[in-house]
Design brief:
heterodimer; A: alpha/beta; FAD/NAD(P)-binding domain; 2 domains; five-stranded parallel β-sheet; 24 strands; globular; B: mainly alpha; 0% strand; disordered N terminus
Chain lengths: 417, 102
C-alpha cells in the first residue's frame, strides 16, 4: 500500500484529496490529510463580516465533512518535513512516512512581523479582516464607530487575495454612505505598490473607482512600524500616515512548518519554491505544492488553487505512472471584485496576460462584464459561496476552463508609430 | 536626456529599463544613477552586483529579498536609492522592473 500525505485540509488540500481519491484505487493508495485545526473557514466571506453582510456562522464548517469516503483525515500539527527521508515529524514526536507529499499549508497573516502593529491598539483601533477573529471584532467596532480617519494598509505586496483590500475599501465607502455618515469618514488607501493594483489596465479602472468614491491613495508606502502613541503609520523612508481606525493587511507568511523544515524561499516568507507550471517542489521530486503555500507568481486565491488542483491531479497521476508531466499551470486567476452598492467587477488573467476588459462567457449564466462594474457580477460573487461548499471543495468540475481563455477579451490593436 | 548621451546608447523600454541586461556596463550604470542624483559608492555596487546575480539565477526580486541579502537591510536600501529603492536600483543594475505578480 502506498501513501499520499496531504499537509493542510483547507481549500487546496481538500480539493486535492477528493480529486485524487476519485482517480486512485483504494486497494493501492492510502490518502491521508493532516491539519492542525478542525474548522474550515470560507475565507472569501471574511470580507463581508465587518459590514454585517455575512454573519460569522456563514463562514464556518467542519473540515472533516468535506472529505469523500476513503480519505483519512487527522487533526495533528506537523513540526518538520524531512524530505530526504520521505517523512514528516509531528509536534508529539511521532513520524508519518509518505510516498508522495502534497504541501497545502496555505498562508497566514503575521502582524508580529511589523513592530507595534500588534501593540496596545490591536483590536481596539487596529484590526485585520483576514481572520475570523479580526473580521468579527471589526464588525463590532464599525457598528459604533463615530467616524474619523479610516486607513487601509497593506504591509507587504505578497498577500492572500490581492483584491480584497480594495474590495474592503469600496464596501466601507458604501457602508458609511448607507449609514448616512460618509461625510464623517476620511478613507485613505496606503499601499506599497505604485498604484491601486499591479497591472496597468486594472490599475487604471480601479484608480478611477477609488477617485469616484473619494478615497485618497498613498502609493509606494512600505510600512516599517506603527506608532501606537501618535496613531501613525511610519514607512521605511520615514513618511507618515495618521489614522483613527487602521484596517491592516499584515505581512502574510507560509506555515511555520515550512520555516522549521528550511523549505521557504529567499523572501523569508515561508513560501515553498515550486515549479510554476508542474507545481512540483524544486527541492524534492515526490513533493508537490499547491495553493497559497507556493511561491509561484500567481495570486494567492481560491480560484488559483482550483485551477492548480486540476493540473496537479493530472501531473501526480502521471508521476505515479512514471510518465512526464503533460499539464502546465498557466497562472490562471479569476476574481470578482466587490465594488459596493450591489455591484462587482470581474478580472480573469494568467502569468502572461494582464486583466483585460471585455466579456467573460459563462455557460448557463451568460456573459459577465470584465473589468467593469455590474450587478450580475455581484450575484456571481455571492453565488460563489454555495459553489465553494458544494462543488469546489468536493472536486466537481466547474463551468470555467482551467487554462485562461481569450474568448471575449478585448485586446487593443498595436498602434504603429 | 543629455545624460543618456554621455552613457553608451543602449536600448531601453519606455520606462528607461534596459531591454537586454547582458548589454549593461558600469559606465551606463553611472549615467543612470546620475539621472537619479545618486553617486555610486562601494555599497551601491555591491547591491547592484547582487541584483544582477539574482537576475541571472532567474529569481524574482522583492524589497524583502534584498533586505535578507546580508548586504543591506531595507532601511539602508532606501537610503542608498531614495524614492523607489527596488525600482531605481533595478534600473541602474540594468535588470527589468521588478514585477509584482498579482
Amino acid at each position: 500500500m502506498k501513501k499520499i500525505l496531504i499537509l493542510g485540509g483547507g481549500t487546496a488540500g481538500t480539493m486535492m484529496a477528493n480529486k485524487l481519491r476519485k482517480n486512485l484505487p483504494l486497494t493501492a493508495w492510502e490518502i491521508k490529510v493532516l491539519d492542525k485545526d478542525e474548522i474550515h473557514y470560507y475565507q472569501p466571506g471574511f470580507l463581508f463580516i465587518p459590514f454585517g453582510i455575512y454573519q460569522p456562522e456563514d463562514v464556518v464548517r467542519d473540515k472533516k465533512d468535506f472529505f469523500s469516503k476513503g480519505i483519512d483525515f487527522e487533526i495533528a500539527e506537523a513540526a518538520k518535513i524531512v524530505g530526504e527521508e520521505n517523512k514528516i515529524l509531528l509536534k508529539d514526536g511521532s513520524a508519518i512516512s509518505y510516498d508522495i507529499l502534497i504541501i497545502a499549508t496555505g498562508a497566514q497573516v503575521v502582524p508580529e512581523e511589523t513592530p507595534e502593529l500588534k501593540g496596545e491598539l490591536w483590536y481596539k483601533d487596529i484590526f485585520d479582516f483576514y481572520t475570523y477573529e479580526g473580521s468579527t471584532k471589526l464588525a463590532k467596532k464599525l457598528e459604533n464607530w463615530e467616524g474619523g480617519k479610516l486607513v487601509i494598509n497593506l504591509a507587504e505586496t505578497i498577500i492572500k487575495c490581492p483584491v480584497a483590500p480594495l474590495e474592503f475599501t469600496f464596501l466601507a465607502d458604501a457602508y458609511f454612505t448607507e449609514k448616512g455618515m460618509r461625510d464623517k469618514v476620511e478613507i485613505t488607501y496606503v499601499t506599497p505598490l505604485s498604484g491601486a493594483f499591479t497591472k496597468p489596465k486594472a490599475t487604471k479602472m480601479l484608480s478611477q473607482l477609488l477617485a469616484e468614491k473619494k478615497v485618497n491613495v498613498v502609493p509606494d508606502f512600505y510600512l516599517q512600524r506603527v506608532d501606537n502613541e501618535r496613531k501613525v503609520l511610519v514607512s521605511y523612508d520615514d513618511k507618515e500616515v495618521p489614522f483613527d481606525l487602521l484596517v491592516s493587511i499584515p505581512v502574510n507568511k507560509g506555515a511555520d512548518v515550512i520555516a522549521n523544515s528550511h523549505m521557504g524561499d529567499e523572501d523569508g516568507l515561508n513560501f515553498v519554491p515550486t515549479d510554476k507550471q508542474s507545481l512540483q517542489s524544486q527541492q524534492f521530486k515526490n513533493i508537490f505544492v499547491i495553493g497559497d503555500a507556493t511561491n509561484v507568481p500567481a495570486s494567492k486565491a481560491g480560484s488559483v488553487a482550483h485551477f492548480e488542483a486540476e493540473v496537479l491531479t493530472d501531473n501526480i497521476l502521471n508521476y505515479i505512472k512514471g510518465l512526464p508531466f503533460e499539464e502546465k499551470f498557466d497562472g490562471h486567476s479569476n476574481c470578482f471584485i466587490e465594488t459596493g452598492f450591489g455591484k462587482a467587477a470581474l478580472i480573469d488573467f494568467n502569468y502572461t496576460t494582464e486583466p483585460l476588459p471585455g466579456k467573460f462567457p459563462l455557460a448557463g449564466i451568460g456573459p459577465m462584464e470584465l473589468l467593469k462594474e455590474s450587478r450580475i457580477n455581484h450575484m456571481g460573487k455571492l453565488a460563489f459561496k454555495w459553489i465553494y461548499w458544494h462543488m469546489l471543495l468536493t472536486g466537481k468540475t466547474l463551468p470555467v476552463s482551467t487554462a485562461m481563455s481569450m474568448t471575449g477579451k478585448e485586446v487593443e490593436e498595436e498602434v504603429l508609430v | 536626456m543629455e545624460t543618456i548621451l554621455s552613457a553608451p546608447l543602449l536600448a531601453t523600454n519606455e520606462e528607461g529599463y534596459l531591454k537586454n541586461y547582458t548589454e549593461w556596463t558600469e559606465e551606463w550604470a553611472c549615467a543612470i544613477a546620475a539621472e537619479h542624483n545618486i553617486d555610486l559608492t562601494a555599497k551601491h555596487w555591491e547591491v547592484l552586483q547582487w541584483l544582477r546575480a539574482k537576475q541571472a539565477e532567474g529569481v524574482a526580486l522583492s524589497l524583502r529579498k534584498v533586505g535578507n541579502s546580508g548586504i543591506v537591510d531595507i532601511k539602508q536600501l532606501y537610503a542608498l536609492f531614495p524614492g523607489g529603492p527596488l525600482k531605481i536600483s533595478s534600473k541602474i543594475a540594468g535588470i527589468p522592473k521588478p514585477a509584482s505578480c498579482i
